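User: Okay, second chain of the day. Same drill as before: sequence in, structure tokens out.
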Amino acid sequence: MSDQITIVGNVAGDPRHTQTPSGIPITTFRVASSPRRFDRTTEKWVDGETNWFSVSAFRALAVNAAASLQRGERVIVTGRLRIRTWEKGERSGTAVEIDAEAIGHDLLWGTSRFERGGPRDAGGSASSAPSPSVDSAGWHAPGVEDSGGALADSRGEEASRTDLRLEDRTEEPVPF
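Assistant: Same drill. Structure tokens below.
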């Protein structure tokens, strides 16, 4: 079975980064995904049953995932779903796996800073030469951030980073 799936959940353990004998980078990790809903009778948020997924990333995505993800972080994963049954002696079970095509942090629960990688060679690793369109600080969008690190709104006025803190929220986020 091979279907497209997108999940949101928490990285359940530190990602494991390895390489195949031919040198292709692979990063694997588990994601725990629990649906949440608001129970109007108790006026509380309730977690549903947790689903566990094994995620595999290859080549450049594997290198970037290994450098970016840590246990406990909230992520969004899109990829190909594979469901397979397994047997080992008297034990058997079902494995739910995702071959990742895209991985990112869930910005509903925190902030993330993007750093553009360099050009890729055939093996998927970043070369040491910077891209001509990227300055020494990485990907830069003029007018979005000034040299002091303050954010600018659409009119060019500065907004403090403290205005965007997650801990300032007073309400539980509502899923779409």
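The chain has one domain: 3-142.

User: Thanks, on to the next one.
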